[in-house]
Design the sequence.
């Protein structure tokens, strides 16, 4: 394990940011989101949760897939170049790292999504344990340990230092790149890190959602849950906005469209939301015509369909963003509680 | 207060005046109630009315006024402007609503409490002007004034513009507050470059979640132009270019003269983009050019932008002002 004084972290980030793309939490007028490091970016490692999850790093909100250029009678088609240089995504919380694994099962399954795969191959994930978890967090329910995130490198804030440990070869290479800024951690530092982990786990125990029961929610519950009359009252207030979907680390649906450049077309894909009325619109119309059906889809996907197709793994990681952000106070926890229990 | 409202709702359901109640349901935390429909007297046990019931229920009446029978709806003073505006635009049928006007001391903003250091919140309680937060990382006590929504700082006053009856906490005399345009003025004095940079920076955070549009009582089109999926008009991608800002510019123009300044758009924006500044700029200009006008204050006056008079300003005013 290595360590670095907190006050020196900006020097480390500068080394990384000058060597490769560095994607990390940046504050813009009070709100923190993942963004690229620049010399005057207001890096913010204190805010627990960014508004949007960091999934953009691998699955951007919009990206060009290929471009067509029309010149007289000729059409030239240029595929988008895949990401081919390493980049770092820094300061990712445990829930969001698990979020990447949820996306992996979708995009890396056959047929592999080459755009996603290229980014995943070149992305180095540096995670950060959650020193001060908050009330909307329920990662524990999904067996995620906020005190010991996964990732290529894991960091802990311990007193006035960050302790860092590489977990993979990619992680070792990262620490090599920044070694001038690091010093080896002592046994005492390791003990302090262990104590910090213990502290985090104890705090998490105190939160209202940490002991949420998932009983009744699994891949076999399709019929009971789908037909439950309570979806109506749960979804009555839903605005059909994309706040929950777009802030969620695991929502993975996208749309593919063409943009008219004037002399050709850019074919792009962008996030879509199952809460939107034109989601999966087909030539014959739409198979979900009410907001109740759209609302039900979002939660059934997370808690029933995804586990049915992925060995029981849920596609919610308990980050609590939808809990904090839904403008009307709806969220997955309310769904789990009100419709949970025995089947 | 809550007990009084529940009692009245039960009476109105019981005597058949209304067949359903649109109100707010208790959340699972002390600060996340949700707008909800109650159809039985028993279900009203979960009804809540407290400082966190900021959500404006008037837009739900579009849907509810199409149903059989009357709906009881609870409206705060500012919500009644939205309701009136929807009636004026023939989107809501006044006869299908039974309105109880509820008083309001300013809606609480949990994000404001977090910004002021409340962290790991376990419980929030209100006692008059004091708001107490019990939290893992240290309890906090706030003056209500410091943790209310932005829109409540520019409150239009305690009077309800429309109602069938008033709850006992309604305070029709509560004065309006000023300062509504002070932030707009700050932006007006910026030079164009600075102003462009200001908005570009704010809008660069937009994730195009459409919450601002979907919550807006003035955005009541059955199909929004931005939901058009035809080639060349599709607008689903968020791009940090003019494309992106077009959504906000068009929306601001489209609600101009109809926006009541209810503040819902700014309340719901997950990125805290100060959308109220766009709307208030329009309101301020309308007041300057056509005389003071408040959308939603009534249901029958002609709105300045849909009423031609020979005194109307000429479009060239834009150039003249610079
Ligand atoms: S659940 Fe909430 S955030 Fe999600 S679409 Fe509905 S209103 Fe928007
Ligand atoms: S559903 Fe909600 S809590 Fe679960 S991962 Fe998505 S945003 Fe987080
Ligand atoms: S949900 Fe867990 S991992 Fe995510 S921010 Fe909260 S404590 Fe950390
Ligand atoms: S609510 Fe905010 S983030 Fe969402 S579309 Fe509107 S301005 Fe953008
Ligand atoms: S634009 Fe905003 S303030 Fe105006 S009516 Fe719509 S939600 Fe309310």
Sequence:
């Amino acid at each position: 394990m290595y360590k670095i004084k907190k006050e020196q972290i900006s020097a480390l980030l500068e080394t990384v940011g000058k060597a490769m793309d560095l994607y990390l939490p940046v504050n813009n007028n009070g709100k923190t989101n993942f963004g690229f490091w620049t010399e005057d970016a207001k890096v913010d490692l204190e805010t627990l949760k960014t508004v949007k999850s960091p999934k953009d790093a691998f699955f951007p909100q919009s990206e060009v897939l290929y471009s067509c250029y029309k010149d007289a009678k000729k059409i030239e088609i240029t595929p988008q170049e895949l990401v081919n240089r390493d980049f770092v995504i820094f300061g990712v919380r445990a829930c969001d790292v698990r979020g990447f694994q949820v996306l992996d099962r979708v995009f890396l399954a056959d047929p592999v999504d080459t755009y996603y795969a290229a980014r995943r191959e070149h992305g180095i994930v540096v995670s950060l344990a959650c020193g001060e978890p908050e009330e909307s967090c329920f990662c524990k329910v999904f067996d995620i340990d906020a005190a010991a995130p996964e990732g290529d490198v894991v960091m802990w804030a311990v007193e006035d230092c960050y302790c860092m440990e590489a977990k993979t070869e990619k992680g070792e290479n990262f620490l090599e790149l920044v070694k001038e800024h690091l010093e080896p951690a002592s046994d005492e530092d390791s003990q302090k890190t262990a104590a910090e982990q213990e502290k985090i786990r104890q705090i998490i125990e105190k939160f209202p959602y940490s002991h949420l029961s998932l009983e009744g929610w699994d891949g076999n519950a399709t019929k009971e849950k789908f037909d439950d009359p309570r979806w109506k009252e749960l979804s009555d207030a839903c605005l059909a906005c994309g706040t929950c979907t777009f802030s969620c680390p695991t929502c993975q649906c996208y749309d593919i469209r063409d943009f008219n450049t004037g002399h050709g077309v850019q074919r792009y894909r962008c996030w879509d939301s199952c809460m939107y009325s034109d989601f999966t619109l087909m030539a014959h119309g739409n198979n979900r015509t009410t907001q109740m059906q759209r609302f039900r889809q979002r939660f059934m996907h997370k808690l029933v369909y995804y586990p049915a197709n992925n060995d029981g793994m849920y596609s919610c990681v308990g980050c609590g963003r939808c809990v904090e952000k839904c403008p009307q106070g709806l969220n997955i926890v309310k769904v789990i509680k009100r419709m949970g229990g025995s089947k | 207060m809550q007990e009084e409202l529940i009692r009245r709702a039960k009476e109105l359901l019981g005597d058949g005046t209304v067949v359903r109640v649109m109100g707010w349901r208790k959340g699972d935390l002390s600060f996340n109630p949700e707008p909800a429909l109650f159809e039985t007297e028993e279900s009203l046990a979960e009804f809540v009315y407290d400082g966190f019931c900021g959500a404006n229920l008037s837009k739900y009446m579009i849907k509810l006024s199409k149903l059989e029978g009357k709906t009881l709806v609870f409206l705060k003073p500012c919500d009644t402007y939205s309701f009136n505006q929807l009636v004026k635009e023939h989107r809501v049928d006044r006869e299908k609503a039974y309105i109880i006007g509820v008083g309001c001391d300013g809606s609480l903003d949990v994000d404001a409490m977090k910004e002021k250091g409340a962290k790991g919140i376990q419980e929030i309680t209100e006692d008059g002007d004091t708001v107490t937060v019990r939290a893992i990382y240290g309890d906090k006590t706030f003056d209500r004034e410091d943790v209310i929504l932005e829109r409540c700082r520019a409150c239009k006053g305690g009077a309800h513009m429309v109602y069938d009856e008033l709850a006992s906490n309604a305070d029709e005399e509560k004065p309006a507050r000023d300062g509504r345009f002070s932030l707009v003025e700050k932006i007006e004095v910026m030079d164009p470059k600075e102003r462009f940079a200001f908005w570009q920076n704010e809008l660069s955070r937009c994730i195009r979640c459409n919450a601002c549009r979907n919550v807006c009582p003035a955005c009541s089109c059955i199909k929004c132009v931005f939901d058009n999926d035809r080639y060349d008009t599709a607008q689903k991608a968020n791009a940090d270019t003019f494309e992106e800002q077009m959504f906000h510019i068009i929306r601001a123009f489209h609600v101009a003269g109809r926006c009541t300044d209810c503040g819902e758009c700014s309340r719901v924006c997950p990125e805290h983009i100060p959308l109220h500044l766009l709307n208030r700029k329009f309101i301020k200009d309308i007041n300057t050019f056509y005389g003071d006008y408040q959308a939603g204050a009534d249901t029958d006056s002609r709105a300045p932008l849909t009423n031609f008079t020979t005194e109307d300003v000429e479009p060239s005013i834009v150039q003249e002002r610079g």
Observations:
- Chain B touches chain A through 45 residues (CB under 8 Å).
